[in-house]
Here is the input.
Amino acid sequence: MNIEGEEMRKPIRLIAAACSDMGIGKNGQLPWCLPKEFQFFLDTITAVSAPEKKNLLVWGRISWFSCPETVFPLANCLNLVLSRKMSAVPPHAHYLCKDFGSVIHLASKPPLCHIVETIWVLGGPEVYKESLEHPWCDLIYLTDIMADFDCNVFFPKFDRNVFRKQKGFPGVPDEIHEENGIQFQFQVFKKEA
Ligand SMILES: NC(=O)c1ccc[n+]([C@@H]2O[C@H](COP(=O)([O-])OP(=O)(O)OC[C@H]3O[C@@H](n4cnc5c(N)ncnc54)[C@H](OP(=O)(O)O)[C@@H]3O)[C@@H](O)[C@H]2O)c1
Here is the structure.
């Protein structure tokens, strides 16, 4: 493990699905219904390397409340909701933070630093943007939804010379999938050192 001063560095990873124009949401909901894509999302964020480890999931308030309650509890996960105005941790969540800096502090210092494996950033755009700029951010899992959808929320622009598209990334199928007549492909972008 890489310890910087009293901080234990944790990988920060983003996961999202975006359509042709990088749209990710419409009126607080996902614009599509792709159960296999959603299952890949769940499998990815719940994967840990040892039974005592947990992933810290970071949700913007609107994304949190738009997630179907039936997915909870999520195995191997601690749920953290970001909000400047909420005052109580909502049902199914474990933590509430007012800013991204507090998320990093919580995950990288005792006691949580001993169990947190990965900080998964689940959106929306504000926290995606902030995490993309963080030096600990190393991977973006971004499903390419190969279709046009009417969206009003978009994945932030990122530098594809810094985050390079990977081929044959472990655990991520390369082929094009199709569900409900919509094609999609899982992609991983890795930050070049
Ligand atoms: N396709 C995908 O992969 C994907 C993934 C995620 C979300 N989405 C979609 O995106 C939409 C949700 O995005 P959104 O932009 O509307 O909302 P959001 O980012 O989920 O939530 C916004 C709220 O979260 C809080 N927040 C966000 N960043 C913060 C920060 N850095 N510090 C403190 N608080 C922060 C604030 O809450 P307060 O107002 O309470 O202060 C803010 O108003 C939905 O349509 C959802 O379905 C899609």
